[in-house]
Amino acid sequence: MKLVRYGKRALQALLLMTLMSSGRDAIAQKPTHTFSIGDSTFLLDGKPFQLISGEIHYPRVPREAWRQRMKMAKAMGLNTIGTYVFWNVHEPQKGQYDFKGNNDIGEFVQMAQEEGLWVVLRPSPYVCAEWEFGGYPYWLQNEKGLVVRSKNPQYLQAYRNYIMQVGKQLQPHLITHGGNIILVQVENEYGSYAADKEYLNINKKMFQDAGFDCDLYTCDPAKDVAKGNLPGLMPAVNGLDDPAQIKALVRKYNDGKGPFYVAEWYPAWFDWWGQVHHTVAAEDYAGKLDTMLAGGISINMYMFHGGTSRDFMNGANCYDTSFYEPQTSSYDYDAPLDEAGNATRKFMIFRQAIQKNLPAGQTLPDVPAAKPTITLPSIQFTLSTNVFSILPAGKQAATPLTFEALKQPYGFVLYRTKQKGGTKGMLSVKELRDYGIVFVNGKRVGVLDRRLKQDSLEVSLPAGVVTIDILVENMGRINFGPNLLKNNKGITSHVALNGKELKGWTMYSLPFQNVDNISFAQKQNATASPVVKKATFDLATTGDTYLDMRDWGKGSVWINGHNLGRYWSIGPQQTLYVPVEWLKKGKNEIVVLELLKPDQENLQSLDKPILSELRPVGSDLSSTSKQ
């Protein structure tokens, strides 16, 4: 044996390296439980097992709060947690992988095991989830010829590279390796997109190659199960709550067998900007939950806890090209557990329905008390900087470049051109994605909003050389439907004045990935330009709180370096949730990027959210900075 020559100490070091390289839980390789798919039920350690699962997305919850959310899941009666795995979180740039901090999916799963919860893992490369680009990383659009959700070689290679990395993180957590992941989903509602069984089989093989040596399944809405199921894998159905209908549908596509699993049961819904806040009465669904559990149906509640789509990670609806609906940062979802992780009335009513269907003598843990809330001291902003004064080096081109061409995932791009003035007319931006503020010689002259099909406005250019600026915000890439491949951002075609295309552009990238390197000055004269404001506040006691953004226009907020998400006074979301985990006793720092009301100086907070207040179009514009 060749290893003998290396000596005892070298062998010990080699063994240690081998254990370390095989994952943090490498020593827990022997299964302690078994899980299998029976003809009518799931089997845990050979006995019938009913999944009572609820969806929680680890990127939407501060890592420091994961365990609290899991304890709440146990208190409502859940025995399992469902979660997607988000490709654009873990491979933000091609070949650069991130499984640290809030992206540590392995730790999330491990924590669930410590709390006595099983996990249904949904690592499909496509997740939908009202998440930016449905979970796809933006850079896929820069791969020449790539077609998502297809047998396209470029796509399959990128997909394989990614899923192999996910497998390295999560194989030690599979039930087959002593962990708590009992089921793994292949693709995601694929039948709503296409029906290529060969593609689905490639997915299955890829998962197996990545180390997912456990039970796999597919899931689709009822009308799409025929297209989205893969023979040999258990089909789950989404959106139904009639046990007889569920059983008939699953049997039809599973050789007359079960088990019967609703992979997405919807007791609530999500919101998008400019539309009413969605609520679903608990009483309307508690009876359905009771009926399903009594009928032997396993479920995954979507969502049990929504959390927040922070940073710039919200998605958008766009089922056809006639409308665009970017989703709010709050993913409260009217779920049983609210955005801050507190039990709602729906939680308590669902808990009763679950308790009713548990085996005799089994009781649920007490429901933890609601987390304390605070209000912050009134915040006065005395430091600010004009966005135009923090522009990086620009990139020049004859025509506007997209975010993707600039290799910029999210945030903003300022498009600048200098043109001969002394004229007026219609300035039009073809294929604006998604929200643009137009300036002439530094003065704001109007806004363009893809939601409202606003892509042009009248401008008057003074004599001489005139600078035209268009600050464009990526409001979220489409996450569902046939337009996944129409997701470039920025000015994606051209700009024209009175029908004549304007040439000669400079693009300035403003991704706002962090705000640590911005230089601020004392209060400046009022300006119509977007501004970044900074302030500090002191706390003697910490707690959850909600920033009241009703007097502000549109923008984003950072507290102690954490991006809390977007605000927009049109609603329905009017507050930003601040987790207690991101506040500290003593001095705290807050930064606000304000696009429309640069003269706003005061910020208040509340001890409860406002998620249902709509404002008329135009209410987001400052009275001192008119169009």
What's the short story on this structure?
The chain is of the alpha+beta class and 627 residues long.
Explain this structure.
This protein has 627 residues and is of the alpha+beta class. A hairpin with a 2-residue loop joins strand 20 and strand 21. Helix content is 18%, strand content 27%.
Strand order of the main beta sheet, please? 4-5-6-7-8-9-10-11
Task: Report the major sheet.
Answer: 8 strands, parallel, barrel
Count of DSSP strands: 35
Judged by helices, strands and strand pairing, the structural class is: alpha+beta
Mean pLDDT: 93
Terminus-to-terminus distance: 81 Å
**What is the helix content?**
10-25%
Beta percentage is: 25-35%
Q: Shape from CA axes?
A: globular
SS element count, helices: 10
Q: Which ranges are low-confidence, i.e. pLDDT below 50, for 5 or more consecutive residues?
A: 1-28, 623-627
Cα radius of gyration in angstroms:
26 Å
Which helices and strands, and how do they pair?
Layout: H1 7-21, E1 35-37, E2 42-44, E3 47-49, E4 52-56, H2 66-76, E5 80-84, H3 87-90, H4 105-114, E6 118-122, H5 153-170, E7 181-185, H6 197-209, E8 216-221, H7 225-228, E9 234-238, H8 243-252, E10 261-265, H9 282-294, E11 298-305, E12 316-317, E13 325-326, H10 345-356, E14 379-380, E15 383-386, E16 395-397, E17 412-420, E18 423-429, E19 432-433, E20 435-440, E21 443-449, E22 456-461, E23 465-473, E24 490-491, E25 495-497, E26 500-501, E27 505-510, E28 521-522, E29 531-539, E30 545-548, E31 554-559, E32 562-568, E33 575-578, E34 586-594, E35 602-606
Parallel strand pairs: 4-5, 4-11, 5-6, 6-7, 7-8, 8-9, 9-10, 10-11
Antiparallel strand pairs: 1-2, 2-3, 12-13, 14-35, 15-28, 15-29, 16-27, 17-23, 17-27, 18-22, 18-25, 19-24, 20-21, 20-23, 25-26, 29-34, 30-33, 30-35, 31-32, 31-34
